């Protein structure tokens, strides 16, 4: 693949990324505007339930909420570029500061979850193909079907009861250490691992029908050499795309597992913002989650092209 093609592909991905991010920021602004909640009233009522309309209007003018649509939109865009997502109604702190306080623990939790997904998906899917039709393959199929149907929060409760209450290996309440994040990361990763195993297994089986596999068999390569040497690499793009989508989605959907293990992460912050109708906290959390989603998917597309030449040729 020549340099011109690589440059063209990167420019295309960059333009797509910018367009999608612009759309995400616009939707985030519309979320603030059309929810039917008046931030000025929420701020004033939080301090004084019997506040007058004049006091609310004064706060509305101070925050620029009475400005024309285009002025508010441009002001919001410039604020996002500077990293200003507004001031939270609940604690009157910058939303970006609130998010940066809770994001690291969520990031570490999801990184652990995705580590389990990567290791077990590749290993188990390859073994299922090697022992295709055997007891191991049938057992993994049943486990995956059950695992896909199991909600993460229910599995989290089972793991917490089993390994923190009945068998006190772990703590009931997470303290942010590596050990305390093992159970929640397993609960979050198990359904995704089951899905990834099925997707990767199907992709590997499809690749085994390719001509290069017949050529490798004719040259005397074993199943282990063919699958781990060539087939698995060409089958990875589908699993990588799925992996990136779930990895990014977990930033916005981790609230249930975090609540079970009392982890103060991004999911809990989003849930608390919804409960208190903190529109700035809600839109800021959703914006960060959406940007991460786009980033992970763009990275997955680039990584798939680097790992699998066939995928790179199809996408150019």
State Rg. Answer: 24 Å
Number of domains: 2
Order of helices and strands: HHHHHHHHHHHHHH
Return residue spans where pLDDT drops below 50 for at least 5 consecutive residues: none
Give keywords.
14 helices; 2 domains; mainly alpha; MetI-like fold; cell membrane; 78% helix; MetI-like
Summarize the structure.
The chain is an all-alpha fold and about 325 residues long. It has two domains: about 5-80, no CATH class; about 95-315, MetI-like fold, CATH 1.10.3720.
Which secondary structure elements does this structure contain, and how are they paired or packed?
Layout: H1 3-33, H2 39-47, H3 53-63, H4 69-82, H5 95-130, H6 135-149, H7 152-166, H8 182-207, H9 211-218, H10 223-253, H11 255-260, H12 266-275, H13 279-307, H14 309-315
Structural account:
The protein is 78% helix and 0% strand. It is built from 14 helices and no strands. α6 crosses α8 and α7 (152-166) packs across α8 (182-207). The N and C termini lie close together (10 Å). The model has no long low-confidence stretch (mean pLDDT 80).
